[in-house]
User: Fold these one by one.
Assistant:
Number 1:
Amino acid sequence: MPGLGAILTAIVTPFDAAGGVDEQALVALMRHLAANGSDGFVVCGTTGEAATLDDDEHLRVIEVAVEAKPPGTTIVAGVGSNDTRHAVALTEGACERGADALLSVNPYYNRPNRRGIIAHYREVSRVADRPIVLYNIPQRTGSDMPNDLLAELAQLDHIEAVKQANNDNLAPVDGLRIYAGNDEILARVLDMGEPGGILTSSHIVGLEMRRMVDEPDERAAIHKSLLPVFEAMSVAPAAVANKTALNLLGHNVGAPRLPYVECDEQETATIRAMLTERGLLVGAAA
């Protein structure tokens, strides 16, 4: 599997005042994050509000990210859907636009059984020509992919890693590399000898998360120091909390799309207090 990097930021999708995708803000944010610890970006994921992007927007975001990615960084494109035909179409589109890898969540809402999940990924893998990272997040999909199923899926062409967002499942899986799907398990994943994580707090503390990779002797201490960040950023969905933090820090990424709503005063105060405590608001728009 080509090296995708260790700190992969599940990047927000900036929107302009009219609610459209703000391509210039996306490129500016990628550059900022690349200079602050990110090795690559997952675009059109949950934090990127993929659920509210139409297909033209979705594929355009991938295209812009690939064309403008900072030197040395990678682009992982979210291509998941609960409609296999749609997932196949997004997979083909992301490959055509040059994404380095693909992030594919198991079907949500309709919650197919094990045979259905395998059949779904067989169709996705058939049209892919680059690495696929599975995405196991039962709190959003309504169904878990246990590790024995992940190992079975690893036998399909191009399926080479999993973003593991079920902390209870965190263990080696035959045939797959493991990426932390929750920020708070990055240290555990790195201690397992796995590549890194697909993260959201790296929007604001990317350099510290980068140090967790580069300074293993300090990893436990850095992890402990970041727990208040993870807690503060959990006051709202990741897309909402990170947009709030970024806007406070002077990065104009706009508001989330409905059904997400902006942080209320109390939630914003919690995030602002955390940023202030870490000295991040110095010189930024408060």
Number 2:
Amino acid sequence: MNGDVSFIGKDIVSINDLSRKDIEYIMDVAETMVPYAKGEKSGRILKGKILGNLFFEPSTRTRLSFESAAHRLGLDVLDVSEMSMTSMAKGETLSDTIRMVDTYCDAIVLRHPHDGAARLAANVAKSPVINAGDGAGSHPTQTLLDLFTIKRSMGSIDGLNIVLLGDLKYGRTVHSLSNALTRFGAKLTFVAPESLQMPQDIIDSLTANNCKPYITDKLDDVIESADVLYVTRIQRERFPDPAEYQKVAGCYRIDNEALRNAKKEMIVMHPLPRVNEIAPEVDDTEHAKYFEQAFNGIPVRMALLSSIMGGEL
């Protein structure tokens, strides 16, 4: 572990707040957490502390993996899974809700439908705040588990050719991941219809960090050189106009035929949930890493919670 890195009391709002050294530190701690995440070892190093889990937007993997991570570390969890369960349904502001929850726990995990909600929460809470996804903005813990999955599967992240496919406009996972990958010198390719391509401000940010992504709408043109294929769902809930969603729904489908020219060691990732963008037949191939990716959320979030809240194995 790097003794120069300290996460005690640190907010995790955006992956852009973390240096490469920070990211590598969390991945190193996460590696030590894997047997604890699997239940092969027991280490309730945060027993007696309380985590506030505030999920004001639907979630399965992120919410349950945070809960699992918390319980593996011995934390008690205050869980709120929808706004209607809080005084926000009566008109209370998010700021007041966060201030109130802050008095009840030692750290807060927040998922919210509006961009900037996590930054607002971090500004008003005295306890550390972890962003579990806010609007179409940032999802830093997903990025960390994605990087951890790539490193465990490929041995290293440096210089890999990463192809991001699908909803790159509204997909907050690929926004955070793209920026993080520039720290490792990865080559980025964006595959999407023009209406769902990566936002220009993200492309400008990547370019400023010496990463010039290749942009196309044809997967066949780039699949042979890919080390990682990161597939995203076309997100109906992010579209302001349902008619626009219908124009692009189902535009890509990854099946064994689509992967026929892929490298043997190329991995397929997906932040889940999937709808029909990856055929079930891919699940049985060596390429499929998305369920392992989902599991990796537990050791990565254990690493974050223990580092932020001061626990040591």
